[in-house]
Write a structure and sequence with these properties.
By secondary structure, the chain is α/β, with parallel strands linked by helices. It has one domain: Aldolase class I (TIM Barrel, Alpha-Beta Barrel), CATH 3.20.20. α9 packs across α10. The longest helix is centred in the middle third of the chain and has 18 residues. The chain is globular, with a radius of gyration of 22 Å.
Amino acid sequence: MIDDLLRPRTAVDLGKRPRRLRASPALRELVREREVRIGSLVQPLFVADDGQPATEIASMPGVRRWRTAEAVEECRALAALGVRAVLLFGIPDRKDAVASSAHDPAGIVQRTIRALKRDVPAMVVIADLCNCEYTDHGHCGILDERGDVDNDATLELLARTALSYAEAGVDVIAPSDMMDGRVGYLRAALDASGYTGLPIMSYAVKFASGFYGPFRDAADSTPQFGDRRSYQMDPPNAREAVREALLDLDEGADILIVKPALAYMDLIRAVAEVSDVPVACYNVSGEYAMVKAAARNGWIDEDRIVDEMLTGFARAGADIIITYFAKSYAERHRRGA
C-alpha cells in the first residue's frame, strides 16, 4: 500500500494541480478573482452636537464622535487615503417624540453636510435617514396611540428630513428606517422639490439584529421600550429579503444595502443576483467590536481577519462596503501592507 502511494502520479493527475497558480504573490495577484477597492469603501462618521460628548466609543475602540470641524479634518485624511465616501449619523442635543431636530435646517447633520461640501467638496457625503437618534423613545418613527410605529405618518417626517439634507447639499440619501413604501415616497418628495438628481441608497434589507449593540451606544438610540422587530426584518427570512430589495428597486432606489453583512453574505449574493443597481453591505458595529475585542486579546490577527471579511463581502457580490475599518484598511493597503 505504501509502495502504491509512492508510485509516480499519472499524466492525468499531474494536470490537476491548482497550487500551480498560488506559487508566488505576483501569480496569486494575477489570477485573483475579486478584490476590495479602497474607492468602494464608505466610512461611517458619528457627528455630535455641542452638548454631546465628543469622545471615543467604549464598545467600538478607535471609533469616536466628532464635532463638525473635526469631521471635516477626518474627511480630509480619508480623502488623502483614497476613501471618498462617508455616511453621517447625527447625535443631537434635543430629542422629542416626533424627532423635530432631525429636520432642523441648523441640525448637526445639516451643518456637517454644508461644512463638508464647502471644505472637502470631492467627498461623497451620504446622510443616514432615520429617526431613532432623534426620538426620546428611541424608535424609528412616530408612535400611534398604541405605542406602535405609525408607518405612514413616519413617511412624511422622513421626507421633511430628506429635503433638509438635500437643501444642505448632501450627495446621497440613505433611508434606514424600514418603513413600507418609503423609497417611493421619498423619491416623489425629492422630485417634486427639484432634487431629481439626488440618489437614494436604500437600506433595503435590514434585519432586527443583535449585531447593532455598539452602534446604539455610539448614537444613544436604544429603544426605551420594546424592540424594532415589527419593522426590521426577521433574520431567518431570505425570500422576504429579496422581495424587500425588489420592492425598493421598483420604487426607485439607486443603490440597495444589505445590513448586517457578516452573517448575511448569502443575502448579499441573492440581492446582487436580482439587482440591476449597485449593491452595498454594512459591516456593522457588532462585527467591528468582535474583531477588535478578539484582536486585543491576541486571539486573532486583526489585519488578516479584516482583509478576509471585506474580501468575503466583495466575493458575495457587494459593490460598496460600509465599514468602520475603511480608514485603517486604506492606510495599510496604500502603503502596501
